[in-house]
Fold this sequence. Notes:
This protein is an alpha/beta fold. The chain folds into 2 domains: 6-64 and 336-427, Aspartate Aminotransferase, domain 1; 70-333, 3-Layer(aba) Sandwich (Aspartate Aminotransferase, domain 2), CATH 3.40.640.10.
Amino acid sequence: MKVLSSAEILTLDRTHLWHPYSSLDPEAPLYPVASAEGCEIVLTDGRLLVDGMASWWSAIHGYNRPELNQAVTQQLAKMAHVMFGGLTHEPAVRLAETLVNIAPPGLHRVFFADSGSVSVEVAIKMALQYQLSRGKRSKTRILSVRKAYHGDTLGAMSLCDPETGMHHLFQSLLPQQIFVAAPACTFHQPWEESCLEDLKSALREHQHELAALMLEPIVQGAGGMRFYHPEYLRAARELCNEFDVLLIIDEIATGFGRTGRLFACEHAGISPDILCLGKALTGGYMTLAATLCTEKVARGICDGEAGVFMHGPTFMANPLACSVALASTQLLLHSPWQERIAAIEQQLCTELLPLRDSPVVADVRVLGGIGVVELRQPVDMKVVVPKLVDQGVWLRPFGRLLYTMPPYVIGSDQLRQITAAMARICTA
């Protein structure tokens, strides 16, 4: 097959493809990729870009890792896929065992899904079916918080901020959930009990109709890259117990070490009733997600009227994806990932926090392997992205946020190239 030139790739792309969160604007920045290695993306024109996004936070080990390549090729020689209805296989059971062993305590059942958004859909259905099985037929709504983001499918969209979120256009079509104010208590500031007032009030008032509370732990991701106090999460767990509401935690963005803990729940020392995982689960190699739940939730569903959980993705527990996820998880656990994240955090603090003095910057915040520069005005993607690429850096800003979540294996010089590019955007 003929190898396409950069121009041919771009022509065909703009003729047929539609990219995420994009219009059909032919002038929108677009860069054909030839390959990727380590922490660098190689464009078809030969330019190298240090990847500050880890492919939307998933490629935590960098690209083209021999251990992960081997896991895929070895599994491919056996079988690429087999249906999971009535059949099982070693990659799935070994991965499930590993996840149960490393997840917050008490989560003993694993339901594999296709993507992070689907794992959220699964979590919602688990919560609703659990309450129905208990005879709590009025408990049909989910409590969420402002600035939340949980995915792009319909159920997940209903839990995203209904006014400022990316899905506000669809509010009239979505299940009508209940929202409270976003946590106002930031991660690095002293805790104030008043931050809980709205959450307490909503749980008290709506407990009869709430099946669950859904939270992103510690970090509200695509809704604004906000870092909130662990005490809020700890108190949320206690309040859910008090008001007979399940707690669903969405660790899709934060799981597998991104905040400096293996799971962000650990900052608060809590375990949810249902946990959503994705993104870094396979080290960025394949799409796979998991929804974990307690035995209480699983038994409550299966002992109920239906007798089974009503969900079943075609590619559930795909053997290739499970194999590489297992290899990625083992690679992480046997690496000095804590030291790496601590080093990234320290360097981000040193090199980004001074940008607070820039007149175009509203705030700078760092937590673990996340560095965020919040600008006073929205980022002009047509201007900013090419400037970053010209400096050999790949970042994908959104709204007013210029941020990085690099691979854990990034070198200090590579990270400095990213932060220097961010600084130039803020001081130009």
